[in-house]
Amino acid sequence: MHADDVLVIEADPAAIGDALSKLGLTLDAVEKAPKEDEAADTGSAGDPEKEERDNKTESRLQSGDVILMELAVRPNAPLLGLSIKHIDLRREFGVNLIALSRDGKNSMARLNSTPIRSGDVLLVQGTSDAILEFANRYGCVPLAERPLKIPDTRKALLAASIMILAVTGAAFGLLPAAITFAAGVLAVAVFKIVPLRKLYEPIDWPVIILLGALIPVAGAMSTTGAADLLAKGLINASGGANPVLTLIILLVVTMSLSDFMNNAATAAVMCPIALGVAAQLQVNPDTYLMAVAVGASCAFLTPIGHQNNALILGPGGFRFGDYWRLGLPLEIIVVATATPMLLWVWPL
Hints:
The chain is an alpha+beta fold. Helix content is 56%, strand content 9%.
Protein backbone atom coordinates (compact mmCIF):
# COMPACT_ATOMS: atom_id res chain seq x y z
CA MET A 1 0.00 0.00 0.00
CA HIS A 2 1.12 3.54 -0.80
CA ALA A 3 -0.20 6.97 0.07
CA ASP A 4 -3.09 8.14 -2.16
CA ASP A 5 -3.95 4.55 -3.20
CA VAL A 6 -7.66 4.15 -4.01
CA LEU A 7 -9.32 1.03 -2.57
CA VAL A 8 -12.70 -0.45 -3.53
CA ILE A 9 -14.18 -2.02 -0.39
CA GLU A 10 -17.36 -4.07 -0.09
CA ALA A 11 -18.60 -4.69 3.44
CA ASP A 12 -21.33 -3.96 5.94
CA PRO A 13 -21.63 -0.20 6.68
CA ALA A 14 -20.65 -0.70 10.33
CA ALA A 15 -17.56 -2.68 9.32
CA ILE A 16 -16.55 0.00 6.83
CA GLY A 17 -16.88 2.66 9.51
CA ASP A 18 -14.55 0.69 11.82
CA ALA A 19 -12.06 0.13 8.99
CA LEU A 20 -11.95 3.82 8.12
CA SER A 21 -11.30 4.72 11.76
CA LYS A 22 -8.73 2.02 12.64
CA LEU A 23 -6.78 1.95 9.38
CA GLY A 24 -6.61 5.70 8.83
CA LEU A 25 -8.63 5.67 5.60
CA THR A 26 -10.92 8.38 4.25
CA LEU A 27 -13.86 8.25 1.87
CA ASP A 28 -12.57 9.08 -1.60
CA ALA A 29 -13.77 12.21 -3.40
CA VAL A 30 -14.35 10.21 -6.58
CA GLU A 31 -15.32 13.13 -8.77
CA LYS A 32 -12.09 14.99 -8.10
CA ALA A 33 -10.01 15.43 -11.25
CA PRO A 34 -6.66 13.57 -11.60
CA LYS A 35 -3.51 15.44 -10.75
CA GLU A 36 -2.39 15.74 -14.38
CA ASP A 37 -5.70 17.35 -15.29
CA GLU A 38 -5.33 19.76 -12.39
CA ALA A 39 -1.84 20.69 -13.57
CA ALA A 40 -3.20 21.41 -17.07
CA ASP A 41 -6.00 23.55 -15.70
CA THR A 42 -4.01 26.76 -15.51
CA GLY A 43 -7.00 29.01 -16.01
CA SER A 44 -8.32 28.33 -12.50
CA ALA A 45 -4.99 28.59 -10.68
CA GLY A 46 -4.98 31.33 -8.09
CA ASP A 47 -8.71 32.01 -8.56
CA PRO A 48 -9.93 33.35 -5.16
CA GLU A 49 -13.58 32.53 -5.90
CA LYS A 50 -12.71 28.94 -6.80
CA GLU A 51 -10.59 28.53 -3.67
CA GLU A 52 -13.35 29.95 -1.48
CA ARG A 53 -15.88 27.61 -3.10
CA ASP A 54 -13.60 24.62 -2.53
CA ASN A 55 -13.10 25.59 1.12
CA LYS A 56 -16.86 25.81 1.67
CA THR A 57 -17.28 22.39 0.06
CA GLU A 58 -14.64 20.86 2.33
CA SER A 59 -16.23 22.38 5.45
CA ARG A 60 -19.64 20.99 4.47
CA LEU A 61 -18.23 17.51 3.89
CA GLN A 62 -16.41 17.57 7.24
CA SER A 63 -19.39 18.71 9.29
CA GLY A 64 -21.21 16.39 11.65
CA ASP A 65 -24.39 16.45 9.52
CA VAL A 66 -22.83 14.41 6.69
CA ILE A 67 -24.81 11.25 5.83
CA LEU A 68 -24.84 8.50 3.22
CA MET A 69 -27.96 8.13 1.09
CA GLU A 70 -29.04 5.97 -1.84
CA LEU A 71 -30.53 7.70 -4.91
CA ALA A 72 -32.27 5.99 -7.84
CA VAL A 73 -31.95 7.66 -11.27
CA ARG A 74 -35.36 8.11 -12.92
CA PRO A 75 -36.03 7.61 -16.66
CA ASN A 76 -35.53 10.80 -18.69
CA ALA A 77 -33.63 12.38 -15.79
CA PRO A 78 -31.30 15.29 -16.70
CA LEU A 79 -28.45 13.23 -15.25
CA LEU A 80 -28.63 10.52 -17.96
CA GLY A 81 -25.51 10.26 -20.08
CA LEU A 82 -23.55 12.59 -17.83
CA SER A 83 -20.71 11.67 -15.49
CA ILE A 84 -19.99 13.04 -12.05
CA LYS A 85 -16.94 14.78 -13.49
CA HIS A 86 -19.10 16.67 -16.01
CA ILE A 87 -21.61 18.02 -13.48
CA ASP A 88 -18.87 18.87 -10.94
CA LEU A 89 -20.87 17.23 -8.15
CA ARG A 90 -18.45 17.98 -5.34
CA ARG A 91 -17.90 21.67 -6.03
CA GLU A 92 -21.47 22.42 -7.13
CA PHE A 93 -23.37 20.67 -4.32
CA GLY A 94 -20.77 19.55 -1.75
CA VAL A 95 -21.71 15.92 -2.42
CA ASN A 96 -19.48 12.88 -3.09
CA LEU A 97 -20.44 9.82 -5.13
CA ILE A 98 -19.25 6.82 -3.09
CA ALA A 99 -20.60 3.85 -5.09
CA LEU A 100 -22.80 2.97 -8.06
CA SER A 101 -25.00 -0.10 -8.51
CA ARG A 102 -26.20 -1.00 -12.03
CA ASP A 103 -28.51 -3.93 -12.81
CA GLY A 104 -27.97 -5.24 -9.30
CA LYS A 105 -24.18 -5.28 -9.70
CA ASN A 106 -21.64 -2.95 -8.16
CA SER A 107 -19.57 -1.00 -10.67
CA MET A 108 -15.81 -1.41 -10.23
CA ALA A 109 -14.91 1.36 -12.73
CA ARG A 110 -13.70 4.81 -11.72
CA LEU A 111 -16.94 6.58 -10.89
CA ASN A 112 -15.89 10.09 -11.88
CA SER A 113 -15.96 9.19 -15.59
CA THR A 114 -18.79 6.61 -15.68
CA PRO A 115 -21.88 7.83 -17.64
CA ILE A 116 -25.05 7.57 -15.56
CA ARG A 117 -27.91 5.41 -16.89
CA SER A 118 -31.58 5.11 -16.04
CA GLY A 119 -32.18 2.82 -13.05
CA ASP A 120 -28.70 3.29 -11.59
CA VAL A 121 -28.55 3.43 -7.80
CA LEU A 122 -26.08 6.00 -6.49
CA LEU A 123 -24.64 5.98 -2.98
CA VAL A 124 -23.79 9.61 -2.21
CA GLN A 125 -22.20 11.37 0.75
CA GLY A 126 -23.08 14.87 1.95
CA THR A 127 -25.51 16.83 4.07
CA SER A 128 -29.17 15.89 3.70
CA ASP A 129 -30.05 19.32 2.27
CA ALA A 130 -27.27 19.14 -0.33
CA ILE A 131 -28.21 15.61 -1.38
CA LEU A 132 -31.89 16.50 -1.76
CA GLU A 133 -30.99 19.61 -3.79
CA PHE A 134 -28.91 17.47 -6.16
CA ALA A 135 -31.66 14.82 -6.38
CA ASN A 136 -34.35 17.39 -7.23
CA ARG A 137 -32.25 19.11 -9.87
CA TYR A 138 -31.07 15.98 -11.67
CA GLY A 139 -34.13 13.74 -11.40
CA CYS A 140 -33.14 11.25 -8.69
CA VAL A 141 -35.36 9.60 -6.10
CA PRO A 142 -34.05 9.17 -2.50
CA LEU A 143 -34.28 5.53 -1.42
CA ALA A 144 -32.62 5.07 1.96
CA GLU A 145 -30.11 6.59 4.32
CA ARG A 146 -27.12 4.39 5.09
CA PRO A 147 -26.11 4.34 8.79
CA LEU A 148 -22.37 4.67 8.24
CA LYS A 149 -20.73 5.96 11.42
CA ILE A 150 -16.99 6.60 11.46
CA PRO A 151 -15.67 6.50 15.05
CA ASP A 152 -13.66 9.53 16.07
CA THR A 153 -11.32 8.78 18.98
CA ARG A 154 -10.79 12.45 19.80
CA LYS A 155 -14.50 13.19 19.99
CA ALA A 156 -15.12 10.02 21.99
CA LEU A 157 -12.56 11.04 24.63
CA LEU A 158 -13.93 14.58 24.70
CA ALA A 159 -17.51 13.29 25.14
CA ALA A 160 -16.41 10.97 27.96
CA SER A 161 -14.60 13.84 29.70
CA ILE A 162 -17.66 16.09 29.48
CA MET A 163 -19.85 13.33 30.91
CA ILE A 164 -17.47 12.65 33.80
CA LEU A 165 -17.23 16.36 34.65
CA ALA A 166 -21.01 16.77 34.55
CA VAL A 167 -21.64 13.76 36.80
CA THR A 168 -18.85 14.78 39.19
CA GLY A 169 -20.16 18.33 39.46
CA ALA A 170 -23.66 17.11 40.27
CA ALA A 171 -22.50 14.35 42.65
CA PHE A 172 -20.32 16.64 44.78
CA GLY A 173 -22.85 19.48 44.78
CA LEU A 174 -20.61 21.96 42.98
CA LEU A 175 -23.64 23.08 40.94
CA PRO A 176 -27.27 21.98 40.74
CA ALA A 177 -27.72 18.89 38.57
CA ALA A 178 -29.90 20.76 36.06
CA ILE A 179 -27.22 23.39 35.48
CA THR A 180 -24.38 20.84 35.36
CA PHE A 181 -25.99 18.60 32.75
CA ALA A 182 -27.28 21.55 30.73
CA ALA A 183 -23.69 22.84 30.60
CA GLY A 184 -22.60 19.37 29.44
CA VAL A 185 -25.12 19.41 26.60
CA LEU A 186 -23.97 22.91 25.64
CA ALA A 187 -20.34 21.74 25.59
CA VAL A 188 -21.28 18.82 23.35
CA ALA A 189 -22.89 21.26 20.90
CA VAL A 190 -20.03 23.79 21.06
CA PHE A 191 -17.36 21.18 20.32
CA LYS A 192 -19.58 19.64 17.58
CA ILE A 193 -19.42 16.18 19.13
CA VAL A 194 -23.03 15.66 18.05
CA PRO A 195 -24.67 17.59 15.19
CA LEU A 196 -26.91 20.33 16.52
CA ARG A 197 -30.04 19.03 14.80
CA LYS A 198 -29.53 15.58 16.33
CA LEU A 199 -29.67 17.08 19.82
CA TYR A 200 -33.38 17.76 19.27
CA GLU A 201 -34.32 14.41 17.69
CA PRO A 202 -34.21 12.25 20.87
CA ILE A 203 -36.38 14.71 22.83
CA ASP A 204 -39.88 13.30 23.33
CA TRP A 205 -41.85 16.55 23.32
CA PRO A 206 -45.20 14.98 24.38
CA VAL A 207 -43.50 13.72 27.55
CA ILE A 208 -42.00 17.17 28.23
CA ILE A 209 -45.44 18.77 27.84
CA LEU A 210 -47.00 16.09 30.04
CA LEU A 211 -44.48 16.69 32.84
CA GLY A 212 -44.93 20.45 32.55
CA ALA A 213 -48.70 20.03 32.87
CA LEU A 214 -48.37 17.84 35.97
CA ILE A 215 -46.41 20.42 37.97
CA PRO A 216 -49.37 22.84 38.39
CA VAL A 217 -51.64 19.87 39.14
CA ALA A 218 -49.35 18.88 42.00
CA GLY A 219 -49.25 22.48 43.19
CA ALA A 220 -53.03 22.70 43.11
CA MET A 221 -53.41 19.55 45.21
CA SER A 222 -50.95 20.95 47.73
CA THR A 223 -52.37 24.49 47.98
CA THR A 224 -56.03 23.44 48.08
CA GLY A 225 -55.35 20.90 50.83
CA ALA A 226 -56.72 17.97 48.80
CA ALA A 227 -53.56 15.87 49.16
CA ASP A 228 -53.21 16.81 52.83
CA LEU A 229 -56.82 15.88 53.57
CA LEU A 230 -56.50 12.57 51.71
CA ALA A 231 -53.31 11.58 53.52
CA LYS A 232 -54.59 12.59 56.98
CA GLY A 233 -57.82 10.69 56.44
CA LEU A 234 -56.02 7.49 55.54
CA ILE A 235 -53.63 7.80 58.48
CA ASN A 236 -56.46 8.55 60.95
CA ALA A 237 -58.30 5.50 59.63
CA SER A 238 -55.56 3.33 61.14
CA GLY A 239 -56.24 4.77 64.59
CA GLY A 240 -52.63 5.95 64.91
CA ALA A 241 -52.05 3.63 67.84
CA ASN A 242 -49.58 1.28 66.18
CA PRO A 243 -46.44 3.11 64.92
CA VAL A 244 -45.50 0.24 62.57
CA LEU A 245 -48.99 0.09 61.01
CA THR A 246 -48.96 3.88 60.68
CA LEU A 247 -45.56 3.66 58.97
CA ILE A 248 -46.90 1.13 56.45
CA ILE A 249 -49.98 3.25 55.73
CA LEU A 250 -47.82 6.35 55.31
CA LEU A 251 -45.60 4.47 52.85
CA VAL A 252 -48.59 3.16 50.87
CA VAL A 253 -50.28 6.59 50.75
CA THR A 254 -47.08 8.23 49.56
CA MET A 255 -46.62 5.61 46.83
CA SER A 256 -50.25 6.06 45.76
CA LEU A 257 -49.93 9.84 45.51
CA SER A 258 -46.63 9.51 43.63
CA ASP A 259 -48.42 7.46 40.96
CA PHE A 260 -50.40 10.55 39.97
CA MET A 261 -48.31 13.49 41.19
CA ASN A 262 -44.76 14.64 40.67
CA ASN A 263 -42.50 12.82 43.14
CA ALA A 264 -41.02 16.07 44.45
CA ALA A 265 -44.50 17.50 45.03
CA THR A 266 -45.55 14.28 46.74
CA ALA A 267 -42.58 14.46 49.11
CA ALA A 268 -43.27 18.14 49.82
CA VAL A 269 -46.89 17.36 50.75
CA MET A 270 -46.18 14.24 52.81
CA CYS A 271 -43.12 15.39 54.77
CA PRO A 272 -45.04 17.76 57.09
CA ILE A 273 -47.62 15.05 57.69
CA ALA A 274 -44.87 12.54 58.50
CA LEU A 275 -43.32 14.97 61.01
CA GLY A 276 -46.72 15.61 62.61
CA VAL A 277 -47.47 11.89 62.94
CA ALA A 278 -44.04 11.23 64.47
CA ALA A 279 -44.57 14.05 66.98
CA GLN A 280 -48.00 12.71 68.00
CA LEU A 281 -46.69 9.16 68.41
CA GLN A 282 -43.44 10.39 70.03
CA VAL A 283 -41.24 8.25 67.75
CA ASN A 284 -38.15 8.86 65.61
CA PRO A 285 -39.19 11.24 62.77
CA ASP A 286 -36.35 10.01 60.52
CA THR A 287 -38.14 6.69 60.06
CA TYR A 288 -41.27 8.36 58.71
CA LEU A 289 -39.34 10.84 56.60
CA MET A 290 -37.41 8.02 54.94
CA ALA A 291 -40.69 6.19 54.34
CA VAL A 292 -41.87 9.27 52.44
CA ALA A 293 -38.59 9.35 50.47
CA VAL A 294 -38.94 5.68 49.49
CA GLY A 295 -42.64 5.94 48.69
CA ALA A 296 -42.24 9.07 46.55
CA SER A 297 -39.60 7.28 44.46
CA CYS A 298 -41.74 4.19 43.75
CA ALA A 299 -44.38 5.14 41.18
CA PHE A 300 -45.07 1.95 39.24
CA LEU A 301 -48.85 1.89 38.73
CA THR A 302 -49.28 4.56 36.02
CA PRO A 303 -47.30 5.95 33.07
CA ILE A 304 -47.65 9.49 34.45
CA GLY A 305 -46.09 8.74 37.83
CA HIS A 306 -42.54 9.28 36.58
CA GLN A 307 -40.91 10.45 33.35
CA ASN A 308 -39.23 7.06 32.92
CA ASN A 309 -42.66 5.40 32.87
CA ALA A 310 -43.90 7.87 30.27
CA LEU A 311 -40.80 7.51 28.08
CA ILE A 312 -41.47 3.81 27.42
CA LEU A 313 -45.23 4.18 26.91
CA GLY A 314 -45.04 4.75 23.15
CA PRO A 315 -41.89 2.79 22.16
CA GLY A 316 -42.96 -0.22 24.25
CA GLY A 317 -46.50 -0.29 22.84
CA PHE A 318 -48.00 -0.13 26.33
CA ARG A 319 -51.43 1.07 27.37
CA PHE A 320 -52.35 3.01 30.51
CA GLY A 321 -53.75 -0.09 32.22
CA ASP A 322 -50.70 -2.25 31.53
CA TYR A 323 -48.58 -0.66 34.25
CA TRP A 324 -50.44 -1.85 37.33
CA ARG A 325 -50.15 -5.53 36.32
CA LEU A 326 -46.46 -5.58 37.10
CA GLY A 327 -46.40 -2.37 39.14
CA LEU A 328 -48.76 -3.62 41.86
CA PRO A 329 -46.72 -6.75 42.73
CA LEU A 330 -43.59 -4.60 42.60
CA GLU A 331 -45.04 -2.08 45.06
CA ILE A 332 -46.06 -4.92 47.39
CA ILE A 333 -42.45 -6.17 47.29
CA VAL A 334 -41.21 -2.63 48.04
CA VAL A 335 -43.50 -2.32 51.08
CA ALA A 336 -42.55 -5.77 52.37
CA THR A 337 -38.84 -4.99 51.96
CA ALA A 338 -38.75 -1.32 52.97
CA THR A 339 -40.72 -1.64 56.22
CA PRO A 340 -38.28 -3.91 58.10
CA MET A 341 -35.29 -2.08 56.59
CA LEU A 342 -36.61 1.29 57.75
CA LEU A 343 -37.23 -0.05 61.27
CA TRP A 344 -33.74 -1.59 61.34
CA VAL A 345 -31.72 1.35 59.98
CA TRP A 346 -33.82 4.10 61.66
CA PRO A 347 -35.32 2.48 64.77
CA LEU A 348 -38.47 3.99 66.23
